[in-house]
Amino acid sequence: MSGVTVYGTPLSPAVSRVMVCLFEKEVDFKLAPVDMAKGQHKSPDFLKLQPFGQVPAFQDELTTVFESRAICRYICDKYPDKGNQTLMGRRDGGLLARTSVDQWLEVEGQNFNAPSLALVFQLVFAPMMGLKQDIAAIEQNEVKLAKVLDVYDHRLGESKFLAGDDYTLADLAHLPNGHFLVTKDKGDLFMSRKNVGRWWEEISARPAWKKVMEMQNAPRA
After folding, report:
1. pLDDT for 118-135, tens place per residue?
2. Cβ–Cβ contacts within 10 Å for residue 147, how many?
3. How many CB atoms lie within 10 A of CB 158?
4. What are phi and psi of 48, to 5 degrees?
5. CB under 8 Å to 76, separation ≥6 — which residues?
6. Structure pTM?
7. Is the Cα torsion angle 56, 57, 60, 61 positive or negative in sign?
8. How distant is the alpha carbon of residue 74 from its chain centre?
């Protein structure tokens, strides 16, 4: 039986980022729900796993890791021979292949994530929480994200995926926020750009991501 546990909810972009990585790597895991509305993420027991009180937290036997991108790197390094073996770059590509993945994964974290997550909050989570949407914030972050996607469109005209010709963590990391935007009438940000649109259609159709979406759409008690 697997000793891997992911703490959180599939609706969390960071949690779903870890889940899709586990599905790609064909690593069995258990999802342990954390009810943030009830403050479970701030409980003493949870803070032992994630000192900032955020999801996900991740356990693999006796090892505890937090921060979704670090967790994904850990999964790829811990289980190199399972499932998709090119998520951190081809082994025969050496340091350059891994560095390319790390570079574009950093781009996702530093450039794509902030404006896309701000949009996801306004378009998805604010209505769920009964909060009024901030139209100015939506407009401002659309402009910021468009500039990032212009750079992506140029890059994806040079290579099939962001880090090269293989699907890697650099692409996978975009799925959670991108999915919410595409399904909340912001798909034109992606599809109006030829190369980004082609890339998005390909990465969002992967079986591992479809499994995450099934979990997101499953009835919750």
Report:
1. 999 999 999 988 999 999
2. 10
3. 8
4. -70, -25
5. 21, 25, 87, 88, 169
6. 0.94
7. negative
8. 15
